[in-house]
Amino acid sequence: MALLTIRNLTVAFATASGSFRAVDGIDLSVDPREVLAIVGESGSGKSVSMLAVMGLLPDTATVTADEMTFDGHDLLHMTGAERRRIIGREITMIFQEPIASLNPSFTVGFQIEEVLRLNMGLSRHAARARAIELFTAVGIPEPAVKIHAYPHQMSGGQCQRVMIAIAIASNPRLLIADEPTTALDVTIQKQILDLLMELQERHGMALIMITHDMGVVAETADRVIVQYKGHKMEEADVLSLFEAPSHPYTRALLAALPENATGDRLPTVSDFFGQEGVQ
Amino acid sequence: MTDYVVEGKGLTQDYYVSGGMFGKAKTVRAVKGIDFAVERGKTLAIVGESGSGKSTLARIVALIDHQSGGTLTIEGHEVDIARHKPDHVLRSKVQMVFQNPYGSLNPRQKVGDVLTEPLLLNTKLSARERREKAEAMLVKVGLGAEHYNRYPHMFSGGQRQRIAIARALMLNPTLLVLDEPVSALDLSVQAQVLNLLADLQDEFSLTYVFISHDLSVVRYIADDVLVMNKGECVEQASRDEIFSAPKHPYTQMLFAATPVTDVEAIRARVAHRKALRAGAGA
Ligand SMILES: Nc1ncnc2c1ncn2[C@@H]1O[C@H](COP(=O)(O)OP(=O)(O)OP(=O)(O)O)[C@@H](O)[C@H]1O
Ligand SMILES: Nc1ncnc2c1ncn2[C@@H]1O[C@H](COP(=O)(O)OP(=O)(O)OP(=O)(O)O)[C@@H](O)[C@H]1O
Ligand SMILES: [Mg+2]
Ligand SMILES: [Mg+2]
Question: Ligand 1 mean position to A49 CA, how many Å?
Answer without folding.
Answer: 9
